[in-house]
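Side project, low priority. Logging it here so it doesn't get lost.
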Amino acid sequence: MRRPSLLQALDYADPENLGGASRAALSLGGELAARGWAVSVFAGRKDGPPVAARGGVTLVRFPSAPSDERAARQLPALLLGSFRALGAAPNGPLDLVLGHQPFATWVVRRRAGCVPLAYCFHSPWAAEFAVRARRRGRRVPPHKLALRLLAERWALGAARLIFVASEFMRRQLAAFHPGTRPARKIRLLPHGVDTERFAPCADAAALRRRLGLPAGATIVLTVRRLEERMGLEELLRAFALCRGALRDGLLLIVGRGRRERALKDLAGALGLGASARFWGYARDEDLPDLYNAADVFVVPTQALEGFGLVILEALAANVPVVATPVGGIPEVLGEMGPELLARDCSPEALAERIERVLRDSGRAARGDRYRRFVLGRYSWGRCAEEFAAHVRALIRR
């Protein structure tokens, strides 16, 4: 019997700066591939080979800047490059297209119009654009908002099934696209975590030596794209407020993005000096070690956090998490109780919660409670099984 085949469509997937949507797509794809599916991912990229393999998944990539850096004048070259790249996709029978963003989904549909389409609604595209513009102090052009709304509405209308990772995103979908009447098509599909890869390590001191981190420091870690809505300015200010209460406090910011220079300038203005370290891009193999080297992990998002994969990764490594009460975060952390959620998104609230969690959740006192929480609820294996069950009828048709 022929194995089912899936083509996922992403606007952008840079292996050195994966966002939440691309990480979810590759993780789900890898789990489906391990279960016998033929999985390809079609996505934009800045550089690198046009075809590559990653975790059992074939990557077919078209030349592109990140979605939020594209200009209208680049559209003809972007279309030409994406259609050319799509010709390198596997030529065998295709059973299902899974879209993650509108542009790449539209390109794939031009080739595979008769193949059933499912769509992952990670976040309202127009809202993300507006948040970035406002936090940069720029005017939000109404025509650009309208184009994004229309493009996303087309994808939602064309999809036979729509997946959301949280009830928050279900509400966002209804708020931004009330006329599409997609309620009957929506399926809740929470993300997962690789609990074998993200697991506790008994010798944190050895990890710190290998990573070049101070053995006796209190390490506050975040792993984020350095973009506007991620709340990294607030985290820097929060760390400045609570640094005096931490023993040799070190704020470790892992990730890349357009805000890097501005964030480093802010760290300097706050007088943080060497106590704020910008790690840059972290290789996949280093991420579990970075979590294990930390005393607390912080998610300071200010808007539109649909789920928060990094929360699960940190908890799977049995590291306590402090997060803002934004988007789908309370749905994940709220099950553990309110002690890990800041009261609001301000630097003062983050600082207060970081101090409290570090005081109450030392390595010896925490046991394995955070990891046990993840093991009982979240895995990519479960996510893949639920996805396959949802789309089975589409593939049969």
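Brief comment: The chain has a mean pLDDT of 88.
Revisit when time allows.
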